[in-house]
Write a structure and sequence with these properties.
Elements lengths: L1 H27 L14 H15 L3 H15 L27 H17 L6 H14 L34 H9 L5 H8 L6 E3 L5 H4 L13 H10 L9 E3 L11 H7 L6 H8 L4 H9 L1 H15 L22
Antiparallel strand pairs: 1-2
Length: 331
Amino acid sequence: MGLAFRWKGLVLAVIVAVAATETVKRGKAQLVENFYGSKCPNLEQIVTQSVQTKIAQTFVTIPATLRLFFHDCFVEGCDASVLIASPNGDAEKDAKDNLSLAGDGFDTVVKAKQAVENVCPGIVSCADILALATRDVVNLVGGPQYSVELGRRDGLISQASRVAGNLPEPSFNLNQLTNMFATHNLTLIDMIALSGAHTLGFSHCDRFANRLYSFSPLSPTDPSLDPGYARQLMDACPHNVDPSVAINMDPKTPQTFDNVYYQNLISGKGLFTSDQVLFTESESQPTVSSFATSGAEFNATFIRAMTKLGRVGVKTGSDGEIRRDCTTFNS
């Protein structure tokens, strides 16, 4: 009887210990809205004002900041590791896949951080400021307003060698896209919604020139491209392509966050293979058609997907730090 009692007690202790461990793990990675409510109550207003000032200087701020957030989250998680500068050129931002990131995105976060530090020194992470600034740039050009979960710490690793293979390529097919997003707990529908960020910004000719001149031996130009759109791209990007030439991702409303991106896909006007494939593949086509018809549905799905993206690989508690300078690890 005593042995049985001790055995039951041991089992109960193990169960309690496991449950406690799982609770700690869940709590450790938990983000919450208004995380800085008592420590920096004016945080969101400070960031928004800083972002508005930057946008007034250049529209590039908007797509640059949005793209910066994606690139950050997909490598080490949403931890501002992409912001670290290195005199040796071996930080995450120096990787080949990140060299095209516009400097205005980095500058947006750095200036917002400086404004926050003036009021709430040493309290708010660069990772959270990037998440807030991303929400703001979307909203300020017609996109949805949404609440941002906060509580991230800034990461302690930023290496160019860790970037390759962690970011989607313009040539990806649907399976490659789906598999890469799935590694971050993002579904097919999440991926399609997040791809809608291509309603803003631009890309350089060398990122899609293969679709114009060397798609296949039988069809040098990708047949999924609308012929008129293909001619426009060829005029802007001659055969001996100048990699510095930039083309709007959305040929119709490039400075408005809307669902026209999906309407473009239906018309054969997706700039990348990874864009157009969302409509040409039967698995994703219904979602594209639905988003093209309903901007409200797209916005709601985009908010959910952005919230999930913002949870990817976050550091909380003792897993990271609150950088004083977004470009440098604390010494």
